[in-house]
Specification:
Blueprint: H1 3-8, E1 11-16, E2 19-24, H2 29-42, H3 44-47, E3 51-57, H4 63-75, E4 79-85, H5 88-96, H6 108-113, E5 124-127, E6 136-139, E7 142-145, E8 154-157, E9 161-167, E10 170-173, E11 183-188, E12 192-195, E13 198-199, E14 212-216, E15 222-226
Parallel strand pairs: 2-3, 3-4, 5-7, 6-8, 7-9, 8-10, 9-11, 10-12
Antiparallel strand pairs: 1-2, 11-14, 12-13, 14-15
Length: 230
């Protein structure tokens, strides 16, 4: 195993309800920090606009350690919002810096109201931002966007795509052939929708937009219908 592979193995990253979680293994803080930054630099598009929590185990971190990492993440448009630690010192330091030290689980009714977008055995990329023209977002599972998808932007997911906002760009769900995937948004006026290999025509902006969910119907055609978000 070369040095680059060794560094990468020090940090495991997965999707959680509030963004991404990076879990560190037993190694020096410097090696762990470098491993995380390396993974982000290798896939900058994937991490753009992400909210990141880190689980550092028993690692004892001082103010400068966390501030340095937070600044490096901010330079890459990644927001550090939580530090999970078994060390009282690290926990106190994180709280002093205004970072969360606990991650709450969604209540059952919250999951239901979110249309079961994310099942317990799934992960998702959460983006709290508007996806602007020229931006291409790809993720090998579900994508949830709290914001708009502007004309000229493209969002591609192997799973489902949920947009808590207005869609004017291109959305492709089930990119690797999953015909059970769906796309939903508060205003679904996309320039193009795709689910697996089914493609929609350009959707005209609605005068009175309502939440809609697009899926492949029993006839094998892509269709959109009212999405009940109440």
């Amino acid at each position: 195993m070369n040095t680059m592979e060794q560094l990468t193995s020090l940090v495991q990253i997965k999707g959680i309800r509030d963004g991404l979680m990076a879990t560190f293994t037993d190694a020096s803080w410097e090696d762990q920090r470098l491993a995380l930054i390396q993974q982000i630099d290798e896939k900058p598009t994937f991490f753009q606009g992400a909210r990141l929590a880190i689980d550092v185990g028993n690692q004892i971190l001082k103010v400068n350690d966390i501030v340095e990492l937070r600044d490096q993440l901010s330079e890459r448009n990644v927001a550090l919002w939580a530090v999970i630690s078994e060390s009282p010192t690290t926990e106190q330091t994180s709280q002093l810096l205004g970072l969360a030290t606990r991650i709450s689980k969604p209540r059952p009714e919250e999951r239901k109201n979110f249309v079961d977008t994310i099942r317990d055995d799934d992960v998702a990329l959460f983006l709290y931002k508007t996806i602007r023209s020229g931006t291409r977002i790809e993720y090998p599972n579900n994508i949830v966007i709290i914001g708009d998808v502007n004309p000229g932007a493209e969002v591609i997911a192997d799973g489902n795509v949920v947009v808590w906002g207005r869609v004017r760009g291109v959305i492709h769900a089930g990119a690797k052939g999953n015909r059970n995937a769906f796309i939903c948004a508060l205003d679904l006026s996309a320039s193009q929708l795709r689910i697996a290999d089914e493609v929609s025509a350009e959707l005209k902006p609605h005068k009175n937009p309502k939440p809609e969910i697009a899926s492949i119907n029993e006839e094998g055609k892509l269709q959109a219908e009212f999405w009940n978000v109440s």
